[in-house]
């Protein structure tokens, strides 16, 4: 679905057009119209996280949609307006909350978008997604003028710069159509994942390697059985809000096409799954990473090392038994779980060396109490 909101006349009446790309034939005429709109210097193309949208459009309609100019991304504009007191948003809904004082209703986000005809609620949801961008733009422009700042416009090209490595463009399952795929986190950021409810073991393994891996159970609590559509909803929300790649065992999630940034995990054991993900996303695990994250909640461990006498009061219930943890205690800054070098140390060290010896650089410490 391509939604376009435009201000139509001098009275600035806003009209939203919904283009059903499933129904729209990819003819020369369609391509030319899209290209003219995207490249018209008279039309500023406003979006939120537009690079991803442009990628999806190219995947569907071809290279005619590979360039948008001039283009303004609300997300980038809000970052640029930090001097005017604007706080960079984590999502479009966040931006609406902050600038318009209203939240976006996301109840339709995980509805059946492959079905036709679309329901009124779906069309309204789609239209609102584009409409709110114009409202946000007006607010930002107002704020920019007040503070003598300007809103940044760019030429947006997809793909940007050198093509992403092949591995990032492809979903891996012989049964599922390969899809263009790219990392959703900003260039230079560390990888971020969200694991579905069948991959909690993988989430913990990733955290042990210092990789940021949220999970469905991290949100709803371990052992809570959710209906599939609610699991999907949590995955989509977290992926969008925090720019995470979804790691899933659920083919129906990938087939539904809710999100491009999903990886269908092939491995059946948490260790092989870990290797698969580290390899696929070219993640190198160093010693500093290993001691950095809580395997239970994905929070970051406090930098300071503690003793039994100095742990924060919130962690008192989690300190190791007397006689162990003498070389220091790590404390999670989020859930205050404690970690220490303990009986599993040698075994885990050996395991890390065997699995990731080259990448881990001869790993030298592993956590107890995981
Ligand atoms: Zn924790």
What's this model, at a glance?
The protein has helices at residues 28-39, 50-61, 74-80, 92-100, 120-146, 200-208, 216-220, 228-242, 251-256, 270-280, 287-290, 345-360; strands at 2-7, 14-19, 45-47, 67-73, 154-157, 192-195, 212-215, 245-248, 262-264, 329-331, 338-340. It has 370 residues and is α/β, with parallel strands linked by helices.
Task: Chart the SSEs and their pairings.
Blueprint (H helix, E strand, L loop, with lengths): L1 E6 L6 E6 L8 H12 L5 E3 L2 H12 L5 E7 H7 L11 H9 L19 H27 L7 E4 L34 E4 L4 H9 L3 E4 H5 L7 H15 L2 E4 L2 H6 L5 E3 L5 H11 L6 H4 L38 E3 L6 E3 L4 H16 L10
Parallel strand pairs: 3-4, 6-7, 6-8, 8-9
Antiparallel strand pairs: 1-2, 4-5, 10-11
Bound molecules: zinc ion.
The site of zinc ion (ZN) has 8 residues, from loops.
Describe the structure.
Mean pLDDT is 79; it is low at 162-181 and 358-370. The chain is an alpha/beta fold. The two termini are 44 Å apart. A 4-stranded parallel β-sheet has the order 7-6-8-9, sandwiched between helices. A 3-stranded mixed β-sheet has the order 3-4-5. The chain contains 12 helices and 11 strands. The relative contact order is 0.09. Helix 4 packs across helix 5 (120-146). It folds into 3 domains: 2-166, 2-Layer Sandwich (Nucleotidyltransferase, domain 5), CATH 3.30.420; 169-283, 3-Layer(aba) Sandwich (Rossmann fold); 296-370, no CATH class. Bound molecules: zinc ion. Zinc ion (ZN) binds at residues 294, 296-297, 299, 332, 334-335, 337.
């Amino acid at each position: 679905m391509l939604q376009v909101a435009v201000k139509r006349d001098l009275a600035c009446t806003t009209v939203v057009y919904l283009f059903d790309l499933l129904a729209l034939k990819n003819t020369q005429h369609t391509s030319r119209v899209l290209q003219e709109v995207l490249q018209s210097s008279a039309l500023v193309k406003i979006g939120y996280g537009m690079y991803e949208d442009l990628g999806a459009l190219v995947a569907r309609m071809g290279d005619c949609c590979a360039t948008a100019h001039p283009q303004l991304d609300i997300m980038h504009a809000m970052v640029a307006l930090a001097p005017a007191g604007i706080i960079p948003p984590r999502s479009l809904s966040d931006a609406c909350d902050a600038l318009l004082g209203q939240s976006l209703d996301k109840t339709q986000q995980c509805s059946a978008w492959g079905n036709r005809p679309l329901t009124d609620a779906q069309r309204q949801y789609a239209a609102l997604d584009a409409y709110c961008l114009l409202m946000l733009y007006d607010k930002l422009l107002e704020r920019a003028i007040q503070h003598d700042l300007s809103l940044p416009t760019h030429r947006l090209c997809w793909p940007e710069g050198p093509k992403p490595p092949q591995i990032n463009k492809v979903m891996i399952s012989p049964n599922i159509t390969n899809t263009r795929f790219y990392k959703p986190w900003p260039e230079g950021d560390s990888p971020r994942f969200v694991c579905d409810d069948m991959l909690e073991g993988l989430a913990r393994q990733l955290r042990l390697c210092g990789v940021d891996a949220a999970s469905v159970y991290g949100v709803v609590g371990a052992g809570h059985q959710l209906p599939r559509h609610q699991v999907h909803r949590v995955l989509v929300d977290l992926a969008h809000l925090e720019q995470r790649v979804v790691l899933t065992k659920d083919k129906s999630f990938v087939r539904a096409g809710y999100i491009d940034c999903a990886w269908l995990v092939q491995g059946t054991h948490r260790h092989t799954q870990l290797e698969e993900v580290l390899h696929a996303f070219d993640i190198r695990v160093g010693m500093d990473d290993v001691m950095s994250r809580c395997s239970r909640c994905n929070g970051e461990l406090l930098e300071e090392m503690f003793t039994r006498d100095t742990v924060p009061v919130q962690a008192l219930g989690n300190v190791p038994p007397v006689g162990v943890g003498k070389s220091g205690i790590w404390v999670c800054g989020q859930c205050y779980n404690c970690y220490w070098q303990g009986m599993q140390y040698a075994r885990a060290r050996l395991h890390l060396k065997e699995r990731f010896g080259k990448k881990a650089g001869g790993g030298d410490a592993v956590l107890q109490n995981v």
